Amino acid sequence: MAEHRIFSTSFASVYPHYVAKAERKGRTRAEVDEIICWLTGYDPLQLDAVIAAGTDFRGFFTAAPAMNGARDQIRGVVCGVRVETVDDPLMREIRYLDKLIDELAKGKAMDSILRTATA
Question: Residue 59: CB partners within 8 Å, gap ≥ 6?
């Protein structure tokens, strides 16, 4: 399946696209990093190391120190796919990250993106 080719794609090759998407909309690299760290449990130094190592998406998510339990609150459509219905666990994690970056680029507040906003 074509979507599974992304598993062997290096996270480092996609990361600049996340940053560029956010920056085009007036957001920052620091906000992208905050989202990634929130989702995966990496700290900023660990994130830099994973990027420098050229780790693929499978390794990136497999080695994540602490996937955030609140990520199951991430709902919606990204790239025409409803993220909460993705069957493959790794692809779902990738889509969660894509959705969070989309929310950032659309101007959502960080507390909403990080699912810390109170109702």
Answer: 11
Supply the pTM of this predicted model.
0.91
Check: CB of residue 6 under 8 Å from CB of residue 79. Answer: no
- Strand 81-82 relative to strand 77-78, pairing: antiparallel
User: Is the model more confident about 65 or about 2?
Assistant: 65
Tell me the percentage of the chain whose pLDDT exceeds 90: 85
- Considering the segment(s) 2-67+76-113 as one domain, its CATH architecture is Orthogonal Bundle (1.10)
